[in-house]
Amino acid sequence: MSGRESASREPLDPDNPIAFPDSVGMALKGSADRKTRQPLSRSRKAPLEKRLPRGLVDGYRSLRGSQWRPQELAAAIIVGREVEARPELVEALREDEPMIVFLVQDEEERQPIANAIRRGLLPSFGLSKVLRGPQVAGLRFEAAGPEPLGMVFVGDQIVGRESRRRPEGLTKAMRLPGPIVIVGAPDEVPRAIQKTADATIKVPRLDGGTLAEVMSICLAPTETEPEPVPDDLLRDLSLEDLPMLMRPGDTRSRAVERLRRMQEGRASSPGGKGAPRKTSARLDTIGGFGAAREWGLSLAQDIADYKAGDLDWSEIDRGLLLSGPTGVGKTFFAQALANTCDVPLVVGSLGEWQVYRNGNLGDMLKAMRQAFEEAESEAPSILFIDELDGIGDRRYFRHDHAEYRIQVVNHLLELVDGIDRREGVVVIGACNMPHRIDPALLRSGRLERHIRIPPPSMKDLALILRYHLGAADIGPRGPIVRELLGMTGADVERVVRDARKIARRARRKLRQADLIAAATGERPPPPFEEAYRVAVHEVAQAVMIYGSGLGEVEEVALTRGGRTGHTDVVIEEPELPTRGWIENRTLVHLAGRAAEEVVLGEPSMGAGGDENSDLARATDLVMTMAGSGGLGPEGSLVWLGPPTRLREIQFEVPSLLTSVEADLKAMYKKAVFTIEAHRDLIETLAKRLVRKGIMSSDEVRDALLEHLEGLGADGPADQAPPAAPP
Fold first, then answer.
1. Fewer beta carbons within 10 angstroms: which end of the chain, N or C?
2. Residue ranges of region Disordered (predicted)?
């Protein structure tokens, strides 16, 4: 098959075409003489003989009590199956000198697979000498002799570390008699070698049946066929993990329990292989997530129809971008979605890929590829990629590492396109800042749908709290939910966890007071002046919502004992907003700060802060209007870039900052004038809010109508808060 000169070798026993397990057995028992093979006893009937190569089970079972290595037993079973399933390869190993490539999915599995081949597969075909790559490199041709050799190359023995040329050992092996076996990950074996090899075998992952068989050999004997290990315990399990699971004297149940603890530890550890902590949550039993939840429920039905054969995969959404602030539960959503769809979840992130192994470009690309390959191997599945905004946008790479980042983006595009050509994988990307993602990733056929997960509403928080509390009876939950306003799903989980800790310390059941204490940080209520400032801020925004006609106020509440506030509103955003609508929307964001200045004499930093603060949102609105929408001051029609990029280029365009600053100051003046005109209303509502802690939409609306009727003595009864100074 290979075209290289063939040499004679000892014939095989026709009754045992592959005595593979026997040879591995002798090697593991320390046999020093591999020239004359002594088959192990096959007197016992192998219960898995129909599924495994002949003689495999009995050969390994004779090792019980010896110095066994479970990872090599598993490797031998896996490789034995793959070779036995290829009669043409068996014939080539008997009569020819083939070059065979074994592609492993995990670098940790290279050595166990190579050892099983070197100690078992090749000696079982009569090869008296099997050399490793470095031994071949140091071998002199005159010392090789006429006898055929087995030659096994692993990892960087295939291609040199500093060069893409073949190392000396592999080059020399091509001129020596005997089969060549190459073991490596797909990116370690050059495509030219994969294509010219006589056989390229993708080594499958460890399965439950193989693990059960290894347990039956290494642990207590069993007379019946062992039950396979549950598939959910096999995810990310490597051959090199097996010695930690099976120790001398262990029972099978103890080994399975040890495996269960290992997987739970990986799932909860940030240093594991990427899967989030396990949860039983399903989208149909939890609240929150807005439109993402509806999309997920629809996807679950589509995947169920696909599994039943009633729907083609081409009809199913295969890509989604999830965005939202930190803590809204994007990773939790992915796990709940996978549970709802009843499919595996494979998790990766840009940060995790960047630190893989040595962190160089090749390592990062390999880590990315492994995540996609794992998702494909588990299809139908969901591949969740966190921190996707770290990928960047090729149009704006201008630094020294631009070429590196361009290759990362290009490789990710290639992988996503590859998924599109294969059935069974849904790719979900998650990010905080979607404007930083290369637009090519968001085109049709890739992550073509974008859904933003909003912070949870009061109704959502009640459902999230119910999920995390389970069956715990803590009485009315309304007071607790009010303290949770403004929190994310992750915050609620932390609050419940902290509350349970408080109850445990007191050695009693969980109480409502524990949850309130956990939500408020067990701090005493703030002084009236602090709570009143927060109330003034929130009430002013509610009044401005009604005065501008933008929408409805659902409720206004003080949270964290009065240290923070929350105004829940419903605003219908037009498809084509005008400058007037944007100005009114900006006034709402500026109203709280203006009210603090008017009512209390000076503003606080409450309107500022992170990118979700009122000042940040007001700035974004005005910047988009001026830089992208053609609605800037004095009729400016200059387009400076898409809205998603303006924040990043604002300091490069001084005129943009000047324009935005001028507009914001003018709008703030409007907000101050409006608050001054209705100061009495705002003070009354703020004091009521401090006293009650929460006000409904009806309370706010009724107070506003009463206030406007009072103004009727000096003006029309339907007078609304003015939107601009006279």
1. C
2. 1-48, 261-281
Place of tokens 């965005």: 323
Q: Which two tokens stand for residue 490?
A: 């992750």
Give the integer Cα–Cα distance in Å for 267 and 273. 8
Three-state DSSP state, 188: coil
Is the preceding peptide bond at 270 cis, omega within 30 degrees of 0? no
List, in order, residues 6 or more apart from 701 with CB less than 8 Å away. 546, 553
Does residue 427 carry a pLDDT above 90?
A: yes
Write the DSSP assignment of 315-334 as a string of letters: GS--EEEEE-STTS-HHHHH
Structurally, at CATH architecture level, domain 458-520 sits in Orthogonal Bundle (1.10)
From the centroid of its chain, how far is CA 591?
39
**Total residues found in the chain within this entry:** 726
| CB contact set of 232 (below 8 Å; sequence gap of 6+) | 263
pLDDT at residue 133, rounded to an integer: 65
In angstroms, the Cα distances linking 550 to 50, 71, 239, 544, 569 are 73, 66, 61, 9, 10
> Contact at 8 Å (CB) between 159 and 188?
yes
Contact 426, 317 (CB under 8 A): yes
Q: Give domain 290-452's CATH superfamily.
A: P-loop containing nucleotide triphosphate hydrolases (3.40.50.300)
Whether the Cβ atoms of residue 563 and residue 534 lie closer than 8 Å to each other:
yes
Q: Does the structure show a pLDDT above 50 at 35?
A: no
Would the pLDDT of 479 be above 80?
Answer: no
Q: Does domain 20-202 have CATH number 3.40.50?
A: yes
Instruction: For the beta carbon of residue 84, count every other beta carbon within 10 angstroms.
Output: 17
**Residues in Cβ contact with 679 at an 8 Å cutoff, skipping those fewer than 6 apart:** 598, 599
The top-level CATH class assigned to 528-713 is mainly alpha
Decide whether 290-452 matches 458-520 in CATH topology: no
**Joined tokens for residue 149:** 């050799």
Catalytic residue among 538, 555, 583, 596: 538
Supply the pLDDT for residue 685.
93
Beta strands per DSSP E along 357-463: 381-386, 425-431, 449-452
Question: What are the extents of the domains in the chain?
Answer: 20-202, 290-452, 458-520, 528-713
Q: Measuring CA to CA, which residue among 657, 658, 636, 659 is closest to residue 648?
A: 657
Please tell me the predicted confidence (pLDDT) of residue 263: 66
- What digits encode the pLDDT tens for the residues 559-583? 776 678 878 787 888 888 999 999 9
pLDDT at 672 over 70: yes
What is the pLDDT, as a whole number, of residue 533?
A: 94
Q: Is there a contact between 28 and 119 (Cβ–Cβ < 8 Å)?
A: yes
CA distance 480 to 517: 10
Quick check: is 538 catalytic?
yes
Per-residue pLDDT averaged across 674-696, rounded?
A: 90
In whole angstroms, give the CA distance from residue 145 to residue 17.
27
- Structure token digits, residue 431: 């990010």
What pLDDT does 147 receive?
A: 64
pLDDT-based confidence at residue 640 (cuts at 50, 70, 90): confident
Within 8 A by CB and 6+ apart from 417, the residues are: 445, 446
